Amino acid sequence: MSRMRTTALATALGVLALTSCSSGSDEESKPITKQLGQGELTQAVPGVGELIPGWEPYRAKGEISKAEYCADKDKSPKGWVRGSEGTYMYKGSTNNMMQVSICLFDTPENAKSSYTEWKGKESDKEEALKKKVGDESVLVINPGLSKDNVYGFSRSGVVTIRVTFDYPGGDTTGTQDMLATTLKRLQQVQDGKRATATVAEQASKADK
Which position among 63, 81, 174, 188 has the lowest Cβ density within 10 Å, counted as fewest Cβ atoms? Predict the structure, then answer.
């Protein structure tokens, strides 16, 4: 093979590899832009067999009935459309609880405004995630009067996600993995697929 053809082949392979990596990255960061239905939001909430080991649903996935539950509870966030949530317990005990809430808004701007209110103003308690989830995300360690809680917040396009984790013993990885899993499931539903992403899968990706 001539030197020119070898160089051309190497260049082509390099472009292919770069395109592949770029495509994978784009897929991971794809924002939620569609006005998903109630059933689609509920499907995106992780369920049995899709959770952190030891965790199980405390009750069936449910609809979020009030807009106030998607921001500061004293205010009704502008542009709220609908929401779904799931509540979980650890090894059958309600001493350790986790909750995932998904909230849909009419525009990214209104979702962003709600995200800002939801996470609160305790900037001294905020901590960056190991790997950003969505357009913006943050952890809030022991928010308000909580002594050992971790809250995780994420916004992706028109959707906000909150994960609350009671008594994780200072470990934030469970909160991060649940945020990432929920967003991935939303992306799957938006693409017209079944929500199949699990926490184990997202935890594995986070460790790479």
Answer: 63
